[in-house]
Specification:
Blueprint lengths: L3 E5 L6 H15 L2 E9 L8 H28 L4 E8 L1 H11 L4 E5 L7 H14 L4 E4 L7
Parallel strand pairs: 1-2, 1-4, 2-3, 4-5
Length: 145
């Protein structure tokens, strides 16, 4: 039923717990885990042009580190992974990724760290509404074992 699972990550502390859930589902189903991080380009709207490239590079490096960490955790469990970093509106990129990569299930957090709570919470809500596949959300109070 689930052969391709997407775990979108923002690299927040909570994402480790969500990754554990996504990895567990993928391992149980012998599924491929896709790990996606999206650089939110809305952050660039308020920056001076001379700072955009440096900030973009920093955010892309943070996103790359987040997907690499999740991929390493998955590999340790014997789960095949595919990683990607995209730029744009996170919810739109996630929903597009689902369609483009024949994803069967999305496993994502309900919110990120305190600083990102509203942005990430709204992303989760939009993905739940718009994704053409089931979306499992993992709240911050859930602990992985």
């Amino acid at each position: 039923m689930y052969e391709t699972i997407l775990f979108p990550t923002d690299g927040s502390d909570h994402s480790t717990t969500v990754a554990d859930h996504a990895i567990d589902v993928a391992a149980t189903r012998d599924a491929t885990l896709h790990v996606l991080s999206v650089v939110d380009d809305r952050a660039f709207l308020v920056l001076d042009e001379d700072r955009v490239e440096r900030v973009r590079e920093d955010l892309e490096a943070t996103s790359r580190a987040a997907v690499d960490e999740a991929a390493t955790r998955a590999a340790d469990r014997g789960v095949e992974t595919v990683t990607a970093v995209d730029t744009g509106h996170p919810a739109e990129c996630i929903v597009d990724y689902v369609a483009t990569n024949d994803v069967d299930l999305v496993v994502m957090g309900t919110s990120g760290d305190e600083y990102e709570r509203n942005v990430v919470g709204s992303v989760s809500q939009r993905v739940v509404r718009e994704a053409p596949v089931p979306v499992t959300t993992v709240g911050p109070s859930v602990r992985s074992e």
